[in-house]
Amino acid sequence: MLTSGPLLLLMDYDGTLTPIVKRPEETILSADMRRHLLRLSKHYPMAIISGRALKDIRKLVGLRKIYYAGNHGLEICGPSLRLVRPEAEKVASTISEICDNLKVKLGHIEGVIVEDKGLTASIHHRLVAPGKLGELKRIFAETARPHLRAGRIKIARGKKVLEIRPNINWDKGKAVLWIIEALKPKGEALPIYLGDDETDEDAFRALRGKGMTILVSKTPIKSNAEYFLRDVDEVKVFLKKLIPN
Fold it and tell me: Is 233 among the catalytic positions?
């Protein structure tokens, strides 16, 4: 066991608990990883913070009595907790409209996946031929530009993905701090955050000096995280060490 103190486990999903795959719908939590999470959830509060829609991440993980944050923390649920950012709900129809337009305009580019997640959207280009990326990004920029100028949305980038989000001051870092504050009556705990993507940097910054931050990356890169693990297998080993005997 790594520590005997109380912990609060906060983890990204894709690329952290599961390997990155070509299509988002192909991501499956391994039986070993689910078993480790289940055992840990019996000892420590746990939250999964994902860019996926809340209903999707809850279904993928499938554990009860833990906390889930979907759409980069714009929607959160768990035992006695519920949050949906109302400012984000107001922009949902705009994001849906952008997705509909992109599906038409990008329909001729093989491999592109336009994912409408309700409060945010992801345009996945992992399967797009390199020679088509320039055209894809040009069409994306042209379609998003009027809504950017109107201040309704903002754009973020991750691993082989373009993100459309409501233009509000909220991210994984603020969501993590909200969860920690909400759970405070249940006892102080050391937050441990594990993530692999650019969106997790917000959480790493938010927890600087307040907890343990761990980047999952095959190669060393510049990050706000204090510690590093190379891949999902090393995450599994780390989590197993946290399980009390």
Answer: no
Domain limits at 131?
86-166
pLDDT digits (tens, 9 = 90+) for 172-200: 999 999 999 998 755 678 999 999 999 99
Mark 17-29 as b/e (b = at least 16 C-beta within 10 Å): bbeeeeebeebeb
Model confidence pLDDT, tens digit, residues 16-40: 999 988 888 888 999 999 999 999 9
> What are the start-end ranges of the H helices in the chain?
31-41, 54-61, 86-105, 130-149, 172-183, 201-206, 232-242
Q: Mean pLDDT in the chain?
A: 94
Only one residue has tokens 């959207």, namely 121
Q: Of 166, 200, 230, which marks where a domain is finished?
A: 166
In the β-sheet with 190-195, what is the strand arrangement from edge to edge? 81-84, 75-78, 67-70, 46-49, 7-11, 190-195, 212-216, 227-229
Report how many domains make up the chain. 2
Active-site option among 12, 196, 197, 200: 12
How far, CA to CA in Å, does 83 sit from each of 25, 54, 73, 78, 182?
A: 25, 11, 9, 10, 11
Q: Which domain CATH number covers 71?
A: 3.40.50.1000
As a whole number of angstroms, the distance between CA 18 and CA 33 comes to: 8
Residue 86 clears pLDDT 70, i.e. is over it? yes
